[in-house]
Write a structure and sequence with these properties.
heterodimer, A: 116 residues, mainly beta, 7-stranded mixed beta sheet, 4-stranded antiparallel beta sheet, 50% strand, globular, B: mainly beta, 6-stranded mixed beta sheet, 5-stranded antiparallel beta sheet, 11 strands, 60% strand
């Protein structure tokens, strides 16, 4: 039990639609990161937010966007869904926000997104 | 770009045998390395975190070593049990993000 929750657990969308996934971090954790995990692969870094500002971004197109709120919750938004967006989406929270952070990242259970 | 490789991709052992899981990475400028466990369809559970200045970490039956200069880490699980069956992922921390390997799927036969 990491104290990080995600909703919904599962989601089915059709190609071209938009989706919002939600994450609630551990209290006091100022940093949230989002990862995409395709079947049989390791998670891929999407982006990170620190105190409501984007702190870094992986190799994902602009249709992947995020928000972080002062109450330790955050959102991942994906526009114009494609079939390849089908994956497990994980959020992770941690204390720090420095680029050289050595903090442990605590992961939520994930949201399974299926795009038809 | 950091590349993380885990070998083998899958492993099946009888109960009681010791497990050895390997992880290698290409960029040695890491801040830390973490080992995670993932059960099917579930999120990640952190097992051990080794800071870049450390050589190993231990927790119960688990021991992880880190050789940063050669870009390698090994996770040892002593006296395996059927409950250890899962996928084990290693991840290295560079510049605020984690880079993951594809994992080693372990099956412990009773």
């Amino acid at each position: 039990e990491t104290g990080v929750t995600q909703s919904p657990t599962h989601l089915i969308k059709t190609r071209g639609q938009q989706v919002t996934l939600r994450c609630s971090s551990q209290s006091g954790h100022n940093t949230v990161s989002w990862y995409q995990q395709a079947l049989g692969q390791g998670p891929q870094f999407i982006f990170q937010y620190y105190r409501e500002e984007e702190n870094g971004r992986g190799n994902f197109p602009p249709r992947f966007s995020g928000l972080q709120f002062p109450n330790y919750s955050s959102e991942l938004n994906v526009n114009a869904l494609e079939l390849d967006d089908s994956a497990l989406y994980l959020c992770a929270s941690s204390l720090g926000g420095r680029r050289e952070s050595t903090d442990t990242q605590y992961f939520g259970p994930g949201t399974r997104l299926t795009v038809l | 770009k950091q590349e993380v490789t885990q070998i083998p991709a899958a492993l099946s052992v009888p109960e009681g045998e010791n497990l050895v899981l390997n992880c290698s990475f290409t960029d040695s400028a890491i801040y830390n390395l973490q080992w995670f466990r993932q059960d099917p369809g579930k999120g990640l559970t952190s097992l051990l975190l080794i800071q870049s200045s450390q050589r190993e970490q231990t927790s119960g039956r688990l021991n992880a070593s880190l050789d940063k200069s050669s870009g390698r880490s090994t996770l040892y699980i002593a006296a395996s049990q059927p409950g250890d069956s899962a996928t084990y992922l290693c991840a290295v921390s560079n510049d605020y993000k984690l880079s993951f390997g594809a994992g080693t799927t372990v099956t412990v036969r009773a």
